[in-house]
Amino acid sequence: MILLVMCVFTKFSTAQDIETILLAADDANLLAENYINPVMNGLMYSMNSGWATTAKVHKKFGFDLTVGVNASFVPDKDQVFAFVPSDYSFVALPNGERELNTVMSENDTETTIDVTIPNGDGTFKIASFDMPGGITGDLPANAVPAPTVQVGFGLPFKTDIKARFVPKLNFSDNVEANLIGFGLQHDITQYLGVIENLPLSISVLGAFTTMKVVYDISDEEISDNVSVSNGELDFEMNTWTIQALASLDFKIITFYGSVGYNNGKSSTKMNGDYALTYDLEDGSGNQIGTVDEFISDPINLEFETSSMRATLGTRLNLSIFKIFADYTFQKYNTATVGIAFSVR
Questions:
Q1: What is the dihedral of CA 116, 118, 124, 128, to 10 degrees?
Q2: Angle of helix 28-47 versus helix 2-14 axis, rounded to 10
């Protein structure tokens, strides 16, 4: 399932030669932040989903193995971002446009960005590059996926420990990713007297997940005015969630729900050494030569998101095999489906 995540980053990173955004100089960080913001938010919401399909914990030494996928849907408003000229120092859009596509847009149209950087001596560095469009036309839905390969184990005191782990995997020769997470779920029903004898279960859950994706930037286009040495994009996501869960557990079917809170922080870094080539113009717009600039580790972005959450779901119990699906209402609504092997 983590191949779905790696596919998203491969499509994002190769949508165009993303390193050409560095020609925007000091404006590159803001353009990159606005462009990739939806995919970072979507991943963080996806990573916080799918931790539990019942509020009922295992008996001591009971266990389960769960495989599923979460998909966080990107709101329409986050498919584009406003281009506010006063926020930028050196870039401009043609024809007075005021809107650009984000990576999660259904519109894959490129937009030419013009760059003009004054040198302070009456000359200007001039360049242009194509800002990539969205990638969701190549995905099954306008949603950001994240995998759940998870084990749960029953501890004393009616507590479950949960762990997610996806080892480092390589995809498309230049993308690698791994994921790890831990959670604890504690039964509250045991403290509520007569309720303990009903099919109703109540518990609390806390969980943390971290995922890292690294994409190696290869310098495949020699005419784009940007050359790359040891280039890579480094994405790291850390999320946590706390939830109160309730479920009605019957022999054939389980109905479950939860309310809680999500938080996530992530970073995006473009590392490596880059040589940028600009045309050099005088004050009358005449080209008088070219100029090269050399930069290292040029982009370092941080993202944070948080939201209340509410989940409704159902699980079909076929002896020790379970099939489940749920939907979480939050800033980026999330659907979860999967199967589980469970021994209570």
A1: -20
A2: 170
Please name the residues in contact with 102: beta carbons below 8 A apart, sequence gap of 6 or more: 34, 35, 36, 37, 38, 78, 79, 80, 81, 134
The dihedral of CA 83, 87, 93, 97: what is its sign?
positive
Nearest to 232 by CA among 211, 218, 249: 218
d(CA 340, CA 8): 26
Residue 42 — φ and ψ, nearest 5°? -60, -40
Q: Are strands 91-92 and 80-82 parallel, antiparallel or unpaired?
A: unpaired
Q: What is the pLDDT of residue 317?
A: 95
**251 CB contacts (<8 Å, ≥6 apart)?**
317
Q: 105 or 160: whose pLDDT is higher?
A: 160
Q: Residue range 288-299: average pLDDT?
A: 92
Cα–Cα–Cα angle for 265, 233, 272, nearest 5°? 125
Q: Global pTM?
A: 0.86
Burial label for 198, CB within 10 Å (0-12, 13-18, 19+), is exposed
